[in-house]
Amino acid sequence: MLEEFEDGGGLRLLLSGGEPLLYPYFWQLNDLLPAFDIRVVLLTNGTLLDRRSAALLNVHEVQASLDGLEESHDRLRGPGAFRRALAGLEAARAAGLTVSVASTVNALNVDDFEALAEIVAELDVWQWTIDVPAVAGAMVANPELAAPLDRAAAALDLAMPAGNHGDNEGQLCGAHMAAVMPDGAVVKCGLFGDIRGGTLERGLRDAWRALPHRSLDGLGEPCRSCLHLEECRGGCRYRGGGLDSPDPDPVQCHRYGVLHTCTKEVVG
């Protein structure tokens, strides 16, 4: 897969999970990475990183999750997780690696982000990614964890550097990416795990090309006439109802203050 990715002009490989450091063959994979001219980012909760393990990493960047201040983060991830995540980031920095932070907004931490911004600034991270999860997966059984959309959307503007879901020549988010699942399936992204282009047996490039790529033309009203379309790019299609859905992403509608143009389903 790595050979195909490099030969096809792949730019960035994200090692994700679950927790990738729990993968039984992680260190064997780590030993392969220097042979490839690809930027590698390790997405981790940070709790398993110490100075020894960080020094062995053959990645360029370590991104750790900080889901709120210590109390909020630990309520979600377990006692002591916040301090261990900070220690993991410091270990990565000591190893000469670029560090970044990812946060998701929920009802436990929605009031933490102004204070969390100060902590992130002190960490001198390259990037702080903030997102609002869709009510799916485990959150379906725990709807109380979903933050009010207006307050959750306000946190997105604290991300560093500011950005959006990205596009490629007028296409919706995800045109430039794919995810490889544990069974070798090449899918649109981790959220759209049922939209498959094939498996690694078919070849990474062919499987990626077989994935659907949607353009902005697939969006309906009010997105098509929205003044913020260039910045929003339709937002997250999963939150918008699906890859083929013409509906707005309600989080982005809250963010840009255009609820008066949205459907009643979005307002709800």
How would you briefly describe this protein structure?
The protein contains twelve helices and eight strands. It has helices spanning 2-7, 26-32, 51-56, 70-77, 81-94, 113-123, 138-141, 149-155, 204-210, 229-232, 250-256, 264-267; strands at residues 12-15, 39-44, 61-65, 98-104, 128-131, 179-180, 185-187, 196-199. Helix content is 32%, strand content 13%.
Describe this structure as you would to a colleague:
With 268 residues, this protein is α/β, with parallel strands linked by helices. The protein has a domain at 2-163: Aldolase class I (TIM Barrel, Alpha-Beta Barrel). 32% of the residues lie in helices and 13% in strands. The chain has 12 helices and 8 strands. It has helices at 2-7, 26-32, 51-56, 70-77, 81-94, 113-123, 138-141, 149-155, 204-210, 229-232, 250-256, 264-267, and strands at residues 12-15, 39-44, 61-65, 98-104, 128-131, 179-180, 185-187, 196-199. The longest helix is centred in the N-terminal third of the chain and has 14 residues, at 81-94. The model is unreliable at 263-268 (pLDDT under 50).
